[in-house]
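go over my protein:
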Amino acid sequence: MSAIFRRAYTTKTLIPPNVAAATRLSGSAKDGQISQLVSFYKKLPKGTVEAAKPSGPWGRYKARYIDGENASVTPLIHLIFGVFAIGYTIDYHFHLKHHKNVEHH
């Protein structure tokens, strides 16, 4: 059973064929396969990849405050302020709910 799993999940299919070791093939089949391989590698992009521009609100926020040379403490301050605002809002809501009939005053 383990031999089946090893055969099914092998990484040999991910490795490109060795062009120099194409001795098993003969004649036009060999030339056709090599030309397909050459055309495949010619289509691949060359050079360096351009940096992707951030998209969406989180991507722009991350690019502005977190990534690269722009890294700062500002996201921590934003988090503290956000937790404070949410906590205060919840506390204020329950305070008004508790005193809706002007009791205890």
